[in-house]
Amino acid sequence: MADTDEPDIKAEIGRNLRELREERGLTQQALAKEADLADETVSRIERGHLNPSAEVLGRLANALKVAAQRLLLMPSAEEKAQKELLIQDIAARLKKASVDDIQFYRELLYRLTRHRGILKESIPVERKSKDRT
To answer: Any residues with CB less than 8 A from the CB of 14 and at least 6 apart, and which?
Structure first.
């Protein structure tokens, strides 16, 4: 019987691959070409539907210019717990904020993540000014 607390290794590899690919501004097709793989192979790995061989992991790592073990990193239970606490704290604060403030925070978050290379697209949201006349 499988332990439900065990990480889904294929899903974690897929998340790591997608994160590294997006940080570099690559499409799945561009990464596949650089790694000499089929486009569908990269897509299936990112979705956690394919368990890549050591050879494929090596090709992807070389194409991304990282050590292969970077693709295999698994978050610890402590990291997962800390992440969950941070998300809960942010959610609690947002529940108390106005819609205008939430839209402002959302725009700020998108700009920050885009600046750090975490997110490539931006979302055009204007903060409505309140008329106090």
So the answer is: 45, 46, 47, 48
Contact 110, 122 (CB under 8 A): yes
Q: Which position has the token pair 């055009």?
A: 124
Side-chain-side CA neighbours of 63 within 13 Å: the count stands at 25
Q: Say how far apart CA 65 and CA 34 lie, in whole Å.
A: 11
**Contacts of range 16-21, beta carbons closer than 8 Å, 24 or more positions apart:** 16/70, 16/71, 16/72, 16/73, 17/42, 17/45, 17/46, 17/60, 17/71, 18/46, 19/118, 20/64, 20/66, 20/70, 20/71, 21/46, 21/64
Half-sphere exposure at residue 3, Cβ-oriented, CA atoms within 13 angstroms: 3
Q: What is the pTM of this model?
A: 0.60
pLDDT digits (tens, 9 = 90+) for 21-77: 988 989 999 999 999 999 999 999 999 999 999 999 999 999 999 999 999 988 777
One-letter amino acid identity for 47? R
- As a whole number of Å, the end-to-end CA separation of the chain is 67
| 25 CB-near residues (< 8 Å, 6+ apart) | 117, 120
